[in-house]
Amino acid sequence: MAQQSGRRIRLIAAVGAALIVLTAGVSCSAAENASPGAAGERGVAAAPGQDRALDSAHGSATAELAPGGAPGRGGSPEVPAQQLDVERSVVRTAALTVDTADVAAAVRQVRSIAVTAQGIVAEERQTGGSGASLTLRIPADSLDRVIDDVAALGKVTDRRSQATDVTDQMIDLDSRVASQQASVERIRALLARAESIADITRIESELAQREAELDSLKNRLAALRGKVALSTLTVDLVGTGAAPLPPASDTPGFLQGLAAGWETLVRIAIVVGAVIGFLIPYLPVAAVIVGIAWFVRRTLRRRAPAVAGAAVGQGGPGAEGE
């Protein structure tokens, strides 16, 4: 009995130890499974704070890079509401061809019309013996009135007009000028803070390049604004009041022949007179040359008999002695 009691006690103790070990293992496994979840929750809780910090840093950087210091997303400032409703910029050109009896008077009237409209005559040229062409620069709001006034000077045979919308180009150039101006100001600020010679040289080179680009953009913008403000009108005036030539006679008579002969004689006399007038300056030179030639020839003729006689005298005595 005592032995059986001892076995039971040891069995119960072994079972109890096994249960304790099993319970401890389950507790450790549950703790391990619970730890990643807590860490994940802590990571999720920390993420919003990090996002806010990144957003704040991004906003500060955008505020520094955006033109004029205005913050925006992705470096693009928000467009103000008043810019959505902009005035359209239109370049207008027109051309007129007018037949008029007096071209000179019409030219004067066209000049007067341009001056009255506060415009200018940019170009004027004669087209043949009975025509003229004028290029006018007229304020855009007065172009239609000027066209009607010029058309009233005669009969309009050709009329053309064209309108080109350049609003997008104007807005683009305005924006680029503003951005380039801000860039130049930033480079100037860097130049003021530069200390070394190398930095000053490099910054000055960059500043010169950006200022040249800014000047080019300003010139393009000014030219475009000039085209919008002043429209171009080309006026071609054609004369129609020239008297027609009398018809030529088919059968020439005595008077026509006499006139033709006299005209030919006059032309021959003119040609001969021109030739004589051309040769007169050369007559003294020719006279000198002829005189020298005559003198040389005469001298040679006088010497020729004397030389011949001397040769004969020298040859005679010699021949007798032999």
Which spans of ≥5 residues are poorly predicted at pLDDT below 50? 28-84, 318-322
Count of DSSP H/I helices? 7
Neighbour order of strands in the largest sheet: 2-3-5-1-4
Mean pLDDT: 74
What proportion strand? 5-15%
Rg computed from alpha carbons, rounded to a whole number of angstroms: 56 Å
Outline: elongated
Query: Helix coverage percent of residues?
Result: 55-70%
Helix and strand composition category? alpha+beta
**Biggest sheet overview:** 5 strands, mixed
Number of strands: 5
Distance between the termini: 206 Å
The sequence of SSEs as H and E is HEHEEHEHHEHH
Overview of the structural elements:
Keywords: Coiled coil, Membrane, Signal, Transmembrane, Transmembrane helix. Residues 1-30 form the signal peptide. Residues 200-227 form a coiled coil. The chain crosses the membrane at residues 268-296. The chain is α+β, with helices and mostly antiparallel strands and 322 residues long. Among the domains are: 7-35; 88-239, no CATH class. The protein is 66% helix and 15% strand. A hairpin with a 4-residue loop joins strand 2 and strand 3 (131-139). Helix 4 (167-193) runs antiparallel to helix 5 (197-229).
Name some characteristics of this structure.
322 residues, alpha+beta, five-stranded mixed sheet, disordered C terminus, membrane, coiled coil, signal, transmembrane helix
Please give a quick description of this structure.
Keywords: Coiled coil, Membrane, Signal, Transmembrane, Transmembrane helix. The chain is an alpha+beta fold.
